[in-house]
Structure formats: structure tokens, C-alpha cells
Amino acid sequence: MRDAPLSESVWTLLNDALELYRDSRPATDRLRHHMNRFGEPLRIAVAGPWQSGKSTLVNALVGDEVAPIEAPGGQAVFAWYQDGTEPHAVAYPAGAELPVTRSTQGLRVDVGRWDPAPVNDLVVTWPSRALRHATVIDTPPVPSACDKILRDADAVLYLTRDGRGTDLHVLEWLQDGMVAKAAPVNALMVLSRADETGGGRIDALLAARQVARRHQRDPRISGLCLGVVAVGGLVALAGRVLTDTDFAALAALAGAPRTEVENHLLSTDRFTVAEFPAPVSVEVRRALLDRLGIFGVRLATTLIRTGTDTRAKLAAELVRRSGLAELREAVSRCFIDRRDALRARSALAALESVVLAEPRPGSDALLAELERVLAGAHDFRELRLLASLQGQRVAFEKELTGEARRLIGENGTGLAARLGVDQRATASELWRLSSAALGRWQEHSEDPLFDADQRRAAEVVVRTCEGLLYSLS
Amino acid sequence: MANAPTWLTVLDETARVCAAHGRTDLIQWVKQKRAQLVDPKLRVLVVGEPKQGKSQLVNALINAPVCPVGDGLTTAIPTVVRHAEEPISTVVEGSGRDTTYAEIGVPRGLLADGLVLIDTPGADGDDLRAAGNSVAAPARADVVIMVTDATRELSVTEVNLLLHVVRSHPQVVVALTKTDIAPHWRLVAERNRQHLASAGIAAPLVPVSATLRLAAARTNDKAINAESGFPDLVARLKQYLTAKNDVLAPSAVGVLTATVIEQLAAPLRAELSAKDSEEPMARLYEAQRTLDELRRCSTRWQNTLNDEMTDLMSDIEYDLRERTRQIMRKVDDAFDAADPLRTWEDYQQWLETSLTEVAESNFAWLLQRCDWISGRVADHFVRYEADVVPEWRVNMPDLTRHIGTIDQPNIERFSAVQKVFTGLRGSYGGLLMFGLATTLAGMPLINPISLGAGALFGGKTIRDEGKSLLRRRQALAKTASQRHIDDFFLRLNKECKDTARWVQRILRDHYTSVTEQLHDAIVHSLRNAKQAADADAAERNKRQMELQQQMRRLATLYEQARELTVRPEGHAVLEPVA
């Protein structure tokens, strides 16, 4: 109901631009490309510094070992993973089809056929449910990849080990331009190597979750991204691709005398010594270490010992504990639910850069129109307010802030999520809650005790409530 | 202790040199270093990026949880851990955020030996560079342990951090932490050693695992302790401690002195290599160039003057001749028809007016040309920005004196007597001719017919005579005019040529004097410039001698410092433990 006008006005704007730039090939190409993107799945880039666990996370999201694809000569290649019926891979800009094989190890792309021509993008089609709503892009390390990420992705999962200052710089950098500043939030921060927190203690993931929560409360970070999620990438992936042999080996470890095994789990060196108390060969142990990490092995053996006794159960438990589910939930809430707004945002950003790159008579008017759409789109106003509330640039009392954030869709843009009730709530209950919220926030928006910023924020919430009632009627 | 004097002497000499150069900032630094080196304690600074396990490394080194470690906890201020009989902890408030630090005392054997450990906040970006004078400044430490974890290779920022530390510090150890959770830490260690070697950093790499060390402390397990890698690190630190005086201090002094000398020498070298002060020499060259230019200019204007004057004279003469010829032509035409006898008065007047006109316009043209030539010559002096066009003007002289008056030529008049006589003479022939003819017809000699014929002949003769007289008069008048105009031409031409020559002379004198003035001025400035350049060169030579002397002193000191750093026995002690 609210998305339609935004998409429409963006569509109109793109058409106007197309008319204005009809004689400029690069401009029309870009604009057309973005018009086509409206019908495609959302593009989520997995970005982050070197060795931050990007490929591991892509694998965990896809549910198969599809990444990384080693480019010859260490070329920086963007690997796109999209849903499809048959696995195949195409290298761009040459458009050459590369042979792929699917094995127990996951995807193998035959890089031998890689043409010496430069390859920027490798589009891999892979049948996976996880890719249905979103195309995932595995990117080279930032900051060198920033420009292309800015251009190609609708949303960004920013991976980091610890969310330090340099990461914030990159995040700021990813929000360059008028459009990005007007609708500042298309990123989620992921503490991607959560299993290494505190030296890989057994409660590392819980600790990492607390760190993530602390980061989320930090106004410097929450102003730049929609949320912070801790994920043990290796554990998550292991959970999704755990084989019976893996499970058998882990079960054998768990079956051996506990103190002795734990003594050997102190370090990776000790875990791979020749004399071992459990009947598991050195090679198998090495493989386990590569797949799960020392933390994963510790966690898995503990879980098996405490009653998670089948492969399926263990896999589910690993996934649950890794934080992958939370990440998926966050992606779905922040990105997939708002995909129209995000795609509109990308299109507007592209339009902005086209106009700025080729100014001509009429482009000023276009820019003004773009600004009007940006300022008028309620989705963006919601996103902006959400960012200000999270960044504490605007603040009410605690409960009020919480309610405002919920209403403007922090927890999801569905009616129930906005109103903070169960999915099964009846229409009449939703109606009652919506009108109550509308009344309350109308009062807030006229409350003389609030300052101008707060009243303006309240007006945005009022508009949201009106939208809710409209969709119910 | 045997070597103590050498490095102390060098250090004190460095301080003196700094004082001689007036670099109080450096003196302070040297003094601080001296105090630190004389102190038998070994200050070990632990640096690295955030979340690499720096605090945990300190804790594991002394087997006590002195530095807070934890998930998401970050060391906020530098923590100094030293020996104390009873565990104590204080926060030392500094003047600002940079100088505030925590001080913790714990009873530990390792610390009692004289080891001081300094845990620092993670260097996120450029923090360490800004550490300045705080306890966390690498310049105030004897050994720096750079902490990097084994889950990944050294990053570019870490290598930059190391390079920064190495610059002010000779002894750096890289600790590769968290080897217990990294299956491939041996590979990472090998790669890191390559990175260090390619960056030119001579720092040993020690793989350690704080987790194992603490586990070993709990269970008192020697084997695990050995596996943790800490005994190696501790042994290394102990070695540095005992070798501080013999090895660390000299090499620290070596590096310090070298750095100080670099800083002192840089401005000197810059001054030495600076090109001769440009200004005086440039002025000299400029003056010389101007002089040459003036010489060329002088030749040029003289040529111009001569050429133009020659042209002028020939042009003026031609013009004059042309004009007089035209008058002559008119005179000829006039006297072909007119009788000088009747028109002389008018003619005389007309000729006078015409000649005056000719003289005036010719002379006016001459004066115009002279002015123009003067301007042309003055153009050569434009660059000197002097107003050199002479003030003087040639006035139009009285030209009428050249014209004179034309005398009426001696003209024969045809008087009445002459006419009668001429008539009679003519009539005689006719009378006789016709008289004789008529006598044949029987008429007397004198008869009406012969009389008539005589009268007819007489009349004709008178008319003929009159005509020839007129022609003679006209010829005479023409000749007289011709002569008059020639005279006029001669006189006026002479006057013009004289005037032109006079103008030429005047102009020549004028511009010669202008050139001389300019020349004098330029020579004067040239002399000044030369003097300035000479004085400058002398001054520079003196300064150069001074600088060279200072450089020699620095070089000696530098040599001493170098000897301190490369003493072979020093290296023998720094070999890694087995």
C-alpha cells in the first residue's frame, strides 16, 4: 500500500531521465539496467575486510560450499550467487560459460577455462531456497571493492571481526551521495568470527552475542547500520553441511573419556597429535578442525555428550547456536521486507550518479524531482527516522522510543510486527491497536513539551499509523 | 658494565650537540632516554591492533589476571604492571587523556627481576603515532612486543605499525598469539616471517598461546606450559633484561643518536646543498644582460637614424624637383600664348606665390619627416621606459628669401618709327613689282594699282615683323623663368639639406647622450650587483666552513653510534634461544 507510490514515482523519474539522456549510451544503459532490476531479486553484498569470513558466510547462507571461487592470479572477482534450476556459471564481461561440477564438496568451477580476458563478475546459478528472494554477492575485500559494492548492491552485510574504527569508516564511505544520506540504512553489521571470541571458549557465541548487543547500543555504530548480529560462520556452515562421517567422528570423540579429550582440545596442535584417546585418525581430526574449527569441535562434542545424539539434531543445534538463524531473520526483516524501498533507493542512487556525471539542461529539474521523491517517500522517512532513533539523534523517553521504533518497522514491516502483537491477531484487534497508536502519536506530534525534531518524528509515526489503518480498511 | 661508559659518553655527547644546535626538544628526549637507560629495569611495551590478545598476553606472562580481558572489553588506558610486595593498583591521573594510566603492582618473580610490562589500548588506526609522551610511547620502552593473532596473517596496517615502532626502537618482538585456536598457525607464522623480512623488519617472531599458558598454570603442567610458547618469550625477555646494559642500551643509543643526528643534519645538509643564494647573482646577470642589450640598441638606433636621413634627403630633393618642374610646365604653357609684354606683372605675382607654396609644403614635409624619424629612433629606447623624444622642434624658417624677384627680361618693343620704316621697306618691293608690270600696259610706274600693292605689301611686312618680335619676347620670358626657378631650386634644396643634416646631428647628439646616461646607470647597478655577489659569496663560504665543521662533528658522532649498534658481541647475545 505504501510501497506502490514510491516505486511508481521512481519509475516515472527513471523514464523522465531516459527521455532526457536518450542520446547518451552509457546513461541509458545504466538507467535501463536499474529499471530491469525492479523485477529481479534483491542484491545483497557480503562485504568486509580481508579474512573476515565473507566466503564462509556466503556458504552458510546458501547452505552449500559454493564460495570462494579462486580466480587465477588472485584477481578480485565479484561472485554472484543466484537461484536457478541447474548449477552453472558465467564469467562477465566476456559472457563466457564456465563448466561447473557439483560434488559432495559443493561447487567446483573449472577455472582452467578462465579466459585471459579480465573477469569482473562471475554469476553462479545454484539451486538454493535461500537465494529465492535475494542474490548474494561474495565480494573482494574492502576498501578497494567499495565503489562496485556501492554501485551493484541494494543491501550490504558488512562483516567484521570486532567493529573497530576502520570498519566504521568503510560503512560511512558506503553511504556516499545524496540518496544514500537521505536513506542511510541498507547495511547490517555482522561479527562474523564470533566463534573466536574470547579465545574460542565454549560460551564464545553467547559472549559474541552480548558484544553485538553492546555495539547495537553504540550510537556511532547504530547510526550507520540497521543492526549488529554475531555469527559463528564456520559453525553455521558446519551445521548446514554436516555429514554422517563428520557426525560419527564427533560422536567417537564425545564417547572417549572426557578429561583426556578435553586435554587434547586445549589447542589445535594437541588435537592433531598422533596418540589420541579416541579412535579417530589424524586425517579425520584435521578435516574436522578445518570444517568446524577448534571451537566447533568443542561445542559439538559437548552437545553430543549432553544429549544431541543424531546428526540432524546436532546440525540443527549448531545452526541455532551459530547465530545464523538470527542473521537470516535480520536479513529478512531489514532487507527482504523492505526490498522495494531498497531497490528504489539503488535506482535513485544510480540516477543521481548519472545526473551528476552528465549534467545538461534539464538535469537540474531532474535532480530537484529526485530530491522531492526522496523527501516525500514515506519509506525513506521511516528509514531515516529509524536511523536517527538508533543513532540517538532524536530521542523520546525509553518506552516511547521503543514504540516508535517498532511502529516504523524496526522489527519488521508486517502489521503485527509493527503493532507488537502475535501474527494471529484478529483484524479488529489490529484496528483497535492502530487507532489507539494513531491517537497517542497525534497527541505527541502536537505536544508543546517536545522540541521540533521530536514533533517531526512523531508526525512520521502518525503517518505510519494512518497507513496501517488504511491497509486494514 | 664495562661498556657503559661508551654509550653513556656517546649519549652525553649527543645531548651536547643538541644543545649546540639549540634543539631543546631533542635534548629533552635524549635526557629522558638517558634516565630510562640508566634505570636497570626493562620496560616492555605490548602493542598491537585491538582484540589480538595483548592484555591476555600480559596476564599469561606473569600468570595473574591483572589486566581486564573479555569479549568486547577493550583496554581503555595504558596499564603499567610492575613488581610490588603486596598487590596494589592505582590510576595515575595525567594532564589529559593521553597521559592517564593505571599502575598495578603484583608480587611476581619475573617482575622482581626488573621487568615492567605496559599493556596498551589497541592501536586502531593512528592511535599509537599520537601516543606522544605517554607511558605507552614506544620511545620510552626498552622492548616492544607487537601482538598479532594467528587466525590471520599480518595486515598492512600492522606492518605499518611495526615500521613506525622500529624507527624509534631497536628491539621489537612479534608475538603470534592464539595459536591454540588456529589450526594453521605454522603457515601463518611462516608467512608473517616473510612479511617481516620483505618489510625489512628484523624482529623475531614468537608463537604463543595464552590459553595454554593459563591452563598450564591451573594444572601445573610443565608440558603444556612448554607448548604455550611462553617459556621462550620469558627467556627472551630475561635475556634482554640482563643484556640491557651491554646490548640493548648501546643499540638503543645507537638508534637514538642516529635519529637525532639525522634530524640535526637535515637542515644543515639542506643549507649546504642549497644553490648559491640566487638573488645577488641573478642581479649581476641581469645587469650584464641589460648592458649587452644597450650596446645592441645603440647600434640599432644609429643605423636607423642614418638610413632614415639618407632616405629623407633623397625624398625631399625629388619632391622639390617634381614641384618646380610642374611650375615650369605651367610657365611654358602660359608663355606659348601670352605676351610677356602685357602680362608680366600678373605673371610675376603668380610665380612668386607658386614658389612660396612649393617651398612651404616641401619644408613642412621635411619637418614632419624629421619628427617621425626622431620617433622611430626613440622607439629603440622603449624598454628603458625613459621619455627620450627630444623636446626640441625645427621651426619653419623664412623661406621667401630663397625666392627673390624675377627680373623682366630685356624685351624689344615694336615702336612706331620701326613700324613705319618696316612698312616702307615692305611696300617698296610691291610698288616696284606692280609698277613695272603696269608700265607694260602703258601706265606710269606710280599708278593706283602699284600704290595699292605697295600698301598691301607694307602692311604684311609690319604684321610679320610684329609676330616674330612677340615670339622672341616669349622665348626670352621662358628662359628667364627657367633660370629663376633653377636658382630657387638650388637655394631651397641647399636649405633643406642643411636643415636635414642639422636635424640629424641634433638627433645623433641627443640620443648619444641618452645612451650614455643609460649606460652609466646600468654600469652602476652592475657594479653594485657584483659587489653584492662577492660579499654574498664570501659570507656563504664562511657559513659553509661552519656547516662543514658541524657536519664533521655529527659524522664522528654518527660513526660512534654506528659502532654501538653493530658490535658483533652484541649480536651474539641477541641470538634467539634454542
From TrEMBL, chain A:
Q: Which SUPFAM superfamilies match?
A: P-loop containing nucleoside triphosphate hydrolases (SSF52540)
Q: What is this protein called?
A: Isoniazid-induced protein IniC
Native organism: Phytohabitans aurantiacus
From TrEMBL, chain B:
Q: Which InterPro entries match?
A: GTP-bd (IPR006073), P-loop_NTPase (IPR027417), TRAFAC_Dynamin-like_GTPase (IPR051943)
Query: Does the keyword Coiled coil belong to this entry?
Result: yes
Boundaries of every G domain copy: 43-178
Q: Which residues form a coiled coil?
A: 528-567
User: Which Pfam family, any one of them, does this sequence belong to?
Assistant: MMR_HSR1
The protein's UniProt keywords, in alphabetical order, are: Coiled coil
Identify this protein by name.
Isoniazid inducible gene protein IniA
Q: What organism is recorded for this protein?
A: Phytohabitans aurantiacus
